[in-house]
Specification:
The chain is mainly α. It is built from 10 helices and 4 strands, in the order ααββαβαβαααααα. Helix content is 61%, strand content 5%. It comes from bioreactor metagenome.
Amino acid sequence: MLVSDLGARSNVIKFGVPILILGIYYLRNIVSIKFLETIRLLLFIVPIVLFGLGVSGIFNVFDMDSYVQGDFKISGTDMDGSRVEESVTTDTRTFLYEEVLNSAIDNNYWMLGRTPARGNDSNSFGYMGFDLTGRYERLSNEIGLANVFTWTGIIGVILYMIVFFRASYLAVNKSRNIYMKLIGLYIAFRWLFSWIEDVNNFSLNYFMLWIMMGMCYSYSFRDMTNKEVVFWIRGIFDARYIHFQNYLIKKRKYEKSANSRFTNVLQQES
């Protein structure tokens, strides 16, 4: 038996994986872009493959009791504040996927969704929304991607994936600094994590996700060198770093334009 105060298993993933990604920073001199790109692609492909295996009944990754041997438990508190022990291998996601998918099929909104004004039919939690909406629906689930599917359908899920995929691709493959590459991997991880949790709500956690997404799409951030990123971050607290960074940027632009003029002169002479 494993006793801990982690509170939720997802917290182990939520905080553990970013620490592993951070470890790549200390190996930046030996880790290639090809290796980072392989990890990025796996983070996108693995959840889709596991979903297909689960729907087809071949393998359910959430049914940990079927492939994990042992009695692993965590201790914590319930909603009443009482001390309780729960099994780490308990499946708390399969029935949510079943409710979301069955609701979409039964009501024929799997293609375009039900809009954010509605939720999925739920026998487990529908009574909680009945007093508010008069319908046995759950307006949002713990699984972020399930909410996207309910609200916007399979088309919305594809578009949602494209946004994540493109952002992480640009950060990993089209950036000049290690920091953006690590953020790109983190964005890919958040896509994977949205199949498990990552609720779509107005929280600091979700807000920062889209801040990082914007940084991945920003050419200015991707074009920075490692030193320029350090200067930019330190410039938040000391304006002298910002002034020095602006000087370096202007110097680099001047050198590029000078090289371009020199190349044009050589071409004209030849």
